[in-house]
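Researcher: I need the complex structure. Ligand is magnesium ion. Inputs:
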Amino acid sequence: MDQSSHIAEELYKKNLELTERNKTLALLRKIDEIILSKVTDIEEVVRQIAQAVVAEAGLKAVYIFLLNKKESLLTPHGISLSKSINDVDPNLQRAMFSVKISWNDDSNLIIKAIKERKMYQTESLYNLFKSIINEKACRKIQDTVDMKSFLIYPLVAREEAIGSMIISPREENQPYFAYQKDLIDRLPEVISIALDNSLLYDRIQRANLRLMELDKLKDEFVSLASHELRTPMTAVKSYLWMVLNKSNSLDPQIRSYLEIASAETEHLIKLVQNMLTISRIEGKRLELNIDIVNLFDLVMHSYNTLKVKAGEKNITITLLPYPEKLMVSGDKDKLSEVFENIIGNALKYTPNKGSVSIYFTIEKNKIAARVSDTGPGISKQNLPKLFQKFGRLEEAKQNRTPGTGLGLYISKQIVELHKGTIKVESEVGKGTVFTVYLPMV
Ligand SMILES: Nc1ncnc2c1ncn2[C@@H]1O[C@H](COP(=O)(O)OP(=O)(O)OP(=O)(O)O)[C@@H](O)[C@H]1O
Ligand SMILES: [Mg+2]
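Model: Output:
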């Protein structure tokens, strides 16, 4: 052989080698794409991987079996053949796809490979499907696709067997480079990771759906229970009110008991009402009746309602006028609930003879409505608790100030539904300022 033909042969070999190497890279990239793609259905992932392996790596066939531990069964989830057997015999195709191998069938080569975590090789398809597909049918499948041998790999993820991959490679007498072998050796691991990923995703998605269902059930339960509780509790409250207000001859001891019962019933009614509102907010069922609202008038209404309470505690309450109209777009009742709670809190937590003032400013196209009090103030570490559900602080509990601890949580949700924010500034011993920011219209 002269020098130039030797070089030509070397070049040819190198070229083939590079082509193989390219195929390996293309396949690995493709599998990567499948793992990272939006396809999360395990069946679809397995099918795509099997297809890619046959198409990109030029193998004769790939079967991917997944292990169903609950049913102790190994079933095919992805079969890709370089030549269709459906055209030759649809029955064979059906037989191939509906194979079920018992996990306890230790004589089966695939089960053996998985249990022993070892690669097995065989020349006959019948060895894989003994007692499941008859020998003649196996032969026919093998001849149709022209498969000469089968490599059986266990698929293992995080030390757990998840299935098996069976590959039928090209014939040995065709150029079969180290890269091709290298690729086949790496495939089980790559595919295990891909499958593990989508199995996990599948499980998480199912758990998530279940949680969503439970959440809905919980919502429905709270909603139903609140409705059912509200009517009898309102009746109890009305009768207590009647006894307390219409009878002059009540024994003082009995009167005090009834007063406690009445206050507790009121508390329960408010709790139920708040839980109903929260279940609506969290179930995204809270509807806003949007109007253009004069915020000053709305706050003044809450102020007028609560003035009596301020009087009872000798608290000076002031509402500073604002020179311009303060218009917002919002739900009157819901926004009133917010201000009644914030002003109500200021009055509730400020000791007798303190003062509460309400004033407005405009900051960057937002109306800031402030409620400031001379109460005990709130420590820095307690500030984040305020807007949580049942976020009553120790002081409030100790002083037995009535409340459910849901007011600020609900207020924050309502303000946010209005595209606003709520902020608190406070220092222990120096009082508290709550600010509600709402977009101005
Ligand atoms: N102005 C304030 N000064 C001091 N502490 C406050 C003030 N406003 C709220 N808090 C604290 O924040 C907690 C949460 O307030 P929130 O309005 O959510 O509940 P509540 O007033 O206890 O009950 P509810 O409003 O449901 O009747 C209160 O229990 C109280 O400990
Ligand atoms: Mg409150």
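Model: Summary of the prediction. The mean pLDDT is 89.
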